[in-house]
Amino acid sequence: MKGFFDLLARFVPPYKRYLALNVLFNVLTAFLTLFSFALIIPILEMLFGLNTQTYAFMPWGSGKLDAVITNNFYYYVQCIIERYGQSTALACIALALVVMTGLKTGCAYMSAFFMIPIRTGVVRDIRNQIYDKIVSLPIGFFSNERKGDVMARMSGDVTEVENSIMSSLDLMFKNPIMIIACLTMMIALSWQLTLFVLILLPLAGLLMGGVGKRLKRVSLEGQTQWGVMLSNIEETIGGLRIVKAFNAEKKVSRRFTGENEKYRTIVTRMNRRYELAHPMSEFLGTATIAIVLWFGGTLILSGHSSITAPKFIYYMVIFYSIINPAKDLSKASYAIQRGLASMQRIDKILNAENTIADPATPAALPAFGRGIAYNNVRFSYNDGETWVIDDVTLEIPRGKTVALVGQSGSGKTTMADLLPRFYDVQQGSITVDGIDIRNVRVADLRALMGNVNQEAILFNDSFYNNITFGVENATREQVEEAARIANAYDFIMASEEGFDTNIGDRGCKLSGGQRQRISIARAILKNPPILILDEATSALDTESEHLVQEALNNLMQGRTTLVIAHRLSTIKNADLICVMQDGRIVEQGTHDQLMAAAGTYKHLVDMQTF
Prior knowledge:
elongated, ABC transporter transmembrane region fold, Rossmann fold, six-stranded mixed sheet, 10 strands, 22 helices, 2 domains, four-stranded antiparallel sheet
């Protein structure tokens, strides 16, 4: 259970006030339970003639408090019997039992009442922490993870933690208090009998614990398989067009059916083990009661125990009161083992190292003034086994446009990703105005930059919110002006609700050219001094390319721009064109200079010329 207490130490402290109130009402519940059961003794002893002693009232403070309370309680019961008769006394005792039970159940409700904010709050905090961690982790982390599995950890695993660990919290705090209170009273009644009980209970606990450990292992397998299934669903929906185009419905269906059957097998094993908790605890509890009943009865019949028959019945009632909390505790421990398996998967995200972090003492980044420099940069996705960028040096002066061209896989996009620190270089450095970008705050660095990618990344929201994404306090006039510069204003206003029109999932209601112009409008509104354009027109038709290129030209005016292009016609006017091959810059110069050199660049241009 170490993992359970570690989880409490991490997430429960903000709710310690609720926890204290929960513990208080649990203690009251345990006290009222014992006190209400104590009413059984005078019923048995006095009403049925088992106790013929005559009691006199003892003034408060005339002796030990517990002795005075017991004596006076018997005295009042004796007075009621003498004055009103046994039937009335029995009714009074029964009424007192009802009142005590009402108080007990009220306290039990209040303990649960104060536990609920802890349960819901901790689950909310876990979800928030996972989401914040996902947002903060570098892009490289998700290169090795399935998106569906990450979603499964945030949805299915957190739900499992909520349904198992958090739903068991009340039981984990309430039941030990009840058990300790009952055991204390049992020791007071008969230490010999209680010692015997304390030998039996751990043996039953060991049997239950062995099954619980195996349950955690199976639960981990189940949650992992659920992540695989969710990834499968996510990939199928994302690639549904290809699935249908290649008549692959049966193939993906067979794959999903196989994964689903594997998940069913694991869940069947898991649930069978979980359902074993109740009958196993029921059987062990009954067996323990039977043994204690035999042993205690033997002690009384042999005269070797100071406990009387009525007190032995009270003892057995208290002991029986332990059985249900013990069973609930065992079921809670089973559920917690399932939840800990899910928490283990959640912690893989929460404990993931963020390699793209702010320095301990970040340098101040002045207003962008001189330019960008790649200095003998080397980068690899697999720790130096294969250099994707191999000893590249490049100067990008302020206000100039530098284009990167070359075959797919030559390292162009990686060069662009290194600038905003989506990844960090392994060797060399990248500087902005002479300052190594690793020495400044990531947020300050990225505030200088705007991105327009080949795939327009939009959100299921309105035109207005997509354009203002990441820009605080933008006015309506500024948004409209950005849309006009991006050649997007006309088609936005032609939509049903203008700028408030929802564009659908990933902008599915728009054409490719329209999506790209919304991305450009977003970059225009941000008004960054540095632009990164990653093949922004490569997926467009000729007419859309013309409109988008015009918008890009408007965007690039007066800015320092790094352009990645496959369509070489779009970068003829760049101040510097760099031809990349196998992670190196093999040629650089203007369009005319490179054409005159008749090298790799001219070969690429000739292949695109009809």
